[in-house]
Write a structure and sequence with these properties.
The protein is of the alpha/beta class and 452 residues long. The strands form 3 sheets. The chain has a 7-stranded mixed β-sheet, with helices on both faces. Helix 5 runs parallel beside helix 14. The two termini are 41 Å apart. The mean pLDDT is 97. The protein binds pyridoxal-5'-phosphate (PLP).
Length: 452
């Protein structure tokens, strides 16, 4: 292909990137990824880069799986597209829905497909509001979520999320979405114990429901573990209290499992880690390991029967249950099972990475290192004892660390001054050694730069 500089110039001239400033593209040029295998990316300069983020938290099965390419090709030849509107269906959409229902806990037996996590959360807004309309309570339309939660970037899902930079542009949030504080003990817990803080943050939900009026609140949505917010693992007291409050007021509970689903936490769903019993789960990413764009909502019997039993639900996307994406996702779920990938996470990859990741707490820049399954984070701090933030603009040190990682051929993302990781679930102990070696070198260089 073309030389890197030419590709970068064309990219900057014609390609508008998500969450990226044009000026940065023009000045520095994009890193151009050309191929990938296992946990390694190759860029247009031929560099081998370890992907500690599985793309955007999605390539759970690892890169370059021929089985998935073959399934996609076969499906394109057999039935490249058909819709699932107006009482039509097709084999891949049916088979995948049945498989998802088998894997999902409780009576989460129904799948409403979407093309992405954002679309699925837009569906959820309409689905829970429709549920209460059918129940004869149309005024019950408020959805409560958390500041620093992430649910996508469309008008609806971006409103559900509590990301201030997203709300700062384009008039979000839409009406009747309200936010409460996040269960981020390390950054916001002050002198409370994690357990006290978890309860205090969960009780903000009860306060918000009382303030708005319980008869107005349709649903609460949260990620079992906030991903894009910085891999924030909530204190153990948090989710049971949220569950109790949702049950008490009879409001629907939506678990956004877009990152935490399909083995990322060592269970099929993050809800199972915390004993959450959601009425709806949002899924995407690991559903197809990112090989095809597909997402959806897994819906419990009561909500599906109520909405479905009341005539048309006037909602849907052209690509709901797209046959190629559905066939790829189904094969991906089969591979995860055939290769016992969850066992690998629980018995091999997590224990080894956890040991090495936790040891990073000895590093002078690292305040805490946490990991559930294969999603983790480290908090960078100038003062471990007080868990203080840096005096610089939030994210300055994190960005510097991310850049050192890139220079050392490792992808780690930063969220403000937390570094986050989510490697492919197939990562081996030998690859974990390379990961930790590159991460440590990057932290050392970042620390040296701060002292200079
Ligand atoms: N929900 C969560 C928890 C996510 O992390 C994301 C994406 O990162 C989304 C929803 C949005 O998914 P998508 O980018 O596929 O629209």
């Amino acid at each position: 292909h073309m030389p890197t500089k030419e590709l970068q110039a064309l990219d900057a001239a014609h390609h508008m990137h998500p969450f990226t400033a044009d000026a940065d593209l023009a000045k520095k040029g994009a890193r151009i990824i050309t191929r990938a295998k296992g946990v390694y990316l190759t860029d247009s300069e031929g560099r081998q880069i370890m992907d500690g983020m599985a793309g955007l938290w999605c390539v759970n099965i690892g890169y370059g799986r021929k089985e998935l390419a073959q399934v996609a090709a076969r499906q394109m030849e057999e039935l490249c597209y058909y819709n699932t509107f107006f009482q039509t269906s097709h084999v891949p959409a049916i088979a995948l829905a049945a498989e998802i229902a088998k894997l999902a806990p409780g009576d989460l037996n129904h799948v409403f497909y979407a093309g992405s996590g954002s679309e699925a959360n837009d569906t959820n807004i309409r689905l829970v509001r429709r549920y209460w309309e059918v129940k004869g309570q149309p005024e019950r339309n408020i959805i409560i979520s958390r500041w620093n939660g992430y649910h996508g970037s469309s008008m609806g899902s971006g409103s559900l999320g509590g990301m201030k930079p997203i709300h700062a542009q384009g008039g979000l949030p839409i009406p009747d979405i309200h936010h409460i504080g996040q269960p981020y003990w390390y950054g916001e817990g002050g002198n409370m114990s994690p357990e006290e803080f978890g309860l205090a943050r969960a009780r903000l939900l009860e306060e918000k429901i009382q303030e708005l009026g319980p008869e107005r609140v349709a649903a609460f949505i949260g990620e079992p573990i906030q991903g894009a917010g910085g891999v924030i693992i909530p204190p153990a007291t948090y989710w049971p209290e949220i569950q109790r409050i949702c049950d008490k007021f009879g409001i629907l509970l939506i678990a956004d499992e877009v990152i935490t689903g399909f083995g990322r936490t060592g269970k099929w769903f993050g809800s199972e880690v915390f004993g959450i019993k959601p009425h709806i789960m949002t899924i995407a990413k690991g559903l197809s390991s990112g090989y095809a764009p597909i997402g959806g909502s897994i819906v419990c019997d009561e909500v599906a029967d109520t909405v479905g039993g009341a005539g048309d639900f006037n909602h849907g996307y052209t690509y709901c249950g797209h046959p190629v994406a559905a066939a790829v996702a189904l094969r991906n779920l089969e591979l995860l099972q055939e290769e016992s990938i969850l066992d690998h996470v629980n018995n091999v990859a997590h224990p080894y990475l956890n040991e090495r990741w936790k040891a990073l707490e000895e590093h002078p820049l690292v305040g805490e290192a946490c990991l559930i399954g294969l999603m983790g984070s480290i908090a960078l701090t100038p003062d471990k004892a007080t868990r203080a933030a840096f005096a610089t603009e939030p994210g300055t040190v994190g960005l510097r660390c991310r850049e050192r990682c890139f220079a050392n051929n490792l992808v780690m993302r930063h969220v403000n001054d937390r570094m986050v990781i989510a490697p492919p679930l197939v990562i081996t102990p030998e690859e974990i050694d390379v990961f930790i070696e590159r991460a440590t070198k990057s932290l050392d260089e970042c620390y040296a730069g701060l002292k200079a």
